[in-house]
Amino acid sequence: MNIDALQTAIPSLFAPWIAAMDFRVQATAKGEVTLSMPIKPSYIHVGGVMCGQAAMAAADTAMVLAMMAYLGEFRPMTTVQLQTSFLRPLSGTHCIVKATVLRSGKSLAFGSIDILDTDGRLAVQATTTYALL
Question: What is the spatial distance between Cα 25 and Cα 104, in angstroms, rounded to a whole number?
Answer without folding.
Answer: 22
